[in-house]
Amino acid sequence: MRLTSFAFLLATAAVLPMPLAAQETIGQQVVATDAANSAERPIAFAAQAPADAALVVMLGSSELPAGLPLTAAERDAVIAAIASGGFAGKSGEVLSLRGVGSRPRILLAGTGEAPNALAIRDAAGKAAQDLRSEKSPVAILGAGSGAAMAEAALGYALGQYRFDRYKTGAKTPPPGAAVTIVGDGPDVAKAAWDARHRGIAEGTRFARDLVTEPAGVVWPQTFADRTRAAFAGVPGVTVEVLDEAAMKREKMGAILGVGQGSRRPPRMVLVHYRGAEGAPVALAGKGITFDSGGLSLKDGSGMSRMKGDMAGAAAVVGTVMALAKSRAPVNVVAVAALAENMPGGNAQRPGDVVRTMGGKTIEVLNTDAEGRLVLADAVQYVAARHRPSAIVDIATLTGAVVGALGDEYAGLFARDEALGTALVTAGEASGEAVWRLPLHANHYDDLKSDIADLKNVVEGGGPGASLGAAFIGSFVDEELPWAHVDMAGTMWSSGGSPTVPKGATGYGVRLLEEFVRNWSANR
């Protein structure tokens, strides 16, 4: 029997190899590195400084404290250097000395008078950065109590962070000899470090690593994979990952719409730590692993930084890590709403309408306002499944908040006063500051769409940060305490600070860890 050309094609399709273009590949398949970041200095606590250690002396004035492991001649030399150098012990002030006796180096680090925990952290973090290339062991003296010694350890841990896994060449690894925090209460300090501060350091490091990694390494699925690996074996923790099929069943059209232009499909990751009874605190993080703007394409200048548009997701997962690894007496669940926003052939178009999990519809006027879309589904899902006592979402949401607050503060929006006050207090205690910005009834009215329930932007300007917050809040029931943190200005540091080396800050881990502990204790 003679085959028509169409029938011939059908008959031969089963035996002909598939065209190469139909094979599913992601990226170039050659990993940039298989190395880890270089090892940081391990942290120990002791009553006496090792004899071969470089000394860091924290002090709040020009007066050298008694009891230092110095000979009389060495002490006189340091006092003379203080006088000639004009060192006064002010916060952020340092004086570095070499050639004094047998010590390889002596570094005086100012804390200011009557230093608090943050000043001690900063002095130790500054020392970590100044001694980055010091080959000898390091000893830090002058913190005071055991609790203050633990704060110094946290400051050093935060300040010595580095991300160097992609650097190649025959270079000597950074020195990795131990740093010892010296004082009268080493056992108390070690207990405090193990009970809380070590977890904060690990959670912050995890968040910084995620934000710093290229988007070709961390995309929605690999974010989920790293999260599962990081929490493997941690008591009290469960990790749930929703794939495309699961999100379709839940009718999460907002997050699916954001990710539909990418070959790397979206994911939603929930990390639940049950360290106490009662309703959990929910933390929701924007996780755009790369944000091109979609069809509303961003300007090319600075687009490489958009690998960090998942810093909110990194912060909430890092917060749960900090709490879980220190076995904090809290119940907390983090949801990371993960998608890659790309201008592919299947990309969402400006003017499309999407349906969220709760049934509300959104007119997508600008595909570059995508973070609020993924969070719309995330806050609804965590509210429905976990019935939390409060929801705090955190996101690199708007450029408008950067214009208002720069990089000194994240913007805070809260319609519950107790929740807003708790977050401000946590910011002050943790050193990750927030500033209250307004939510107004008109912001909600301005977001009404002519053809759907809401539109994702208000064209023609307006208070962009407040409108973005109001949009997310529209998907949280009024009676549920909710707050939004816009961290767009604080996720990256161009110059660095004592506890935040240049690069990804890990902002949000310390803020939210402090908040969750106190919110849970006072409920």
Model description:
By secondary structure, this protein is an alpha/beta fold. It has 2 domains: 43-163 and 176-186, Leucine Aminopeptidase, subunit E, domain 1; 201-521, Aminopeptidase (3-Layer(aba) Sandwich), CATH 3.40.630.10. Helix content is 35%, strand content 18%. The protein is built from 15 helices and 19 strands. The chain has helices at 5-13, 72-85, 117-130, 146-159, 186-212, 220-231, 244-249, 253-259, 311-325, 371-386, 399-405, 417-430, 441-446, 464-473, 509-521; strands at residues 43-46, 54-59, 94-97, 106-110, 138-141, 179-182, 237-242, 267-274, 281-291, 331-341, 352-355, 361-364, 390-395, 410-414, 434-436, 454-455, 482-486, 492-493, 503-504. The strands form 4 sheets. An 8-stranded mixed beta sheet has the order 7-8-10-9-13-17-14-15, with helices on both faces. Strands 1-6-5-2-4-3 form a 6-stranded mixed beta sheet, with helices on both faces. β14, α12 and β15 (434-436) form a beta-alpha-beta unit. α3 crosses α4, α9 (311-325) crosses α15 and α12 crosses α15. The longest helix is centred in the middle third of the chain and has 27 residues, at 186-212. The protein is elongated, with a radius of gyration of 26 Å. 52% of the residues are buried. Residues 1-23 have low confidence and may be disordered.
Question: Short summary of the structure?
Answer:
The protein is α/β, with parallel strands linked by helices and 523 residues long. Helices cover 35% and strands 18% of the residues.
